[in-house]
């Protein structure tokens, strides 16, 4: 009951703000926006440094809101690929713009030296963004060359 109550409050705030996407979902969406062909769920777990179960739960919530689409991989029918929808990309960029607005208001209120030292501290703490590579072609097993028979 408590979860349903919390979810309804969150949805009410989201409707009021015009946003459906949460900050956690935006974290996942940033990788899906950069990956043109989508990402396998396992790759998304690796990039976000979480477990596959966590990725499945977050992506399922995003799919319920129409932010993400899950489908079987065309190269490997066993894996599931998550792709961002147009609505999901719009929500991501909208949320990002609002966060930048909050940051700019914070910078305007803070003394100059403090914001630059905070930015430097955050750069030291945050690892660089992972570079997304395109999906590799499926591995094909090559037959080993046979050695010539002995005399």
TrEMBL record:
A Pfam family reported for this protein in Swiss-Prot or TrEMBL: MarR_2
Compositionally biased region (Pro residues): 127-137
Any one biological process term the GO annotation gives: response to stress
Matches recorded under Gene3D superfamilies: Winged helix-like DNA-binding domain superfamily/Winged helix DNA-binding domain
UniProt superkingdom: Bacteria
Annotated ranges, domain HTH marR-type: 1-127
Alphabetical list of InterPro entries matching this protein: HTH_MarR-typ, MarR/SlyA-like, WH-like_DNA-bd_sf, WH_DNA-bd_sf
The protein's name: HTH marR-type domain-containing protein
Native species: Demequina activiva
